[in-house]
Amino acid sequence: METSCRIAFKEWAAVCGLLAEGRQTLLLRKGGIREEGGTFEVAHSSFWLMPTFEHQSANLLQEAHQSLLPSPNPAPGVVHIRAYAEVAAVHVVDDDELVWSMRREYPWNRAYVKQRFDFNPYDPLYAIVLRVWNVNPGFTVPMLPRYEGCKSWVELDMELPTSGAVPAVSDEEFAVRRDYVAAAMASGKP
Prior knowledge:
- By secondary structure, the chain is of the alpha+beta class.
- The chain has one domain: Archaeosine Trna-guanine Transglycosylase, Chain: A, domain 4 (Roll).
């Protein structure tokens, strides 16, 4: 793990919370409308998770996760960052049934999965396995105008230290969940 990092990955606040709690390990990403170069890329191997409140919708979550959707940003003008992630694996997927079969590792419902496949259908959909750590109490940083908008990656104005980070799940549990996703991807079958 790096000792500090200034790269942040923007994701729904609900998803950042689930990752931080160890209830999720898999991100599905195709990208936002303002991605650098026009398409999403896994441009960094480690980063902070930056919770966003844009585009969150309870009707795009599995029923068990709908109540976890936080209300609009409780502190406009700032963002609270508490989870650091490292990319453990990146898979390009082209089968929505295969993605749906791994739903225990992410919170979105079938409609969201279909929406991801239908959005820019020629662009790849990435299934990204993340190893997540929590830093408590975390960091509150100003939400600068250049951080806003439909883009995945932002460079923070400052390096945030990772010292004291605690894993969201044990090494053993993470290995089981990472291997579960790898086996599903290798089989190519739901």
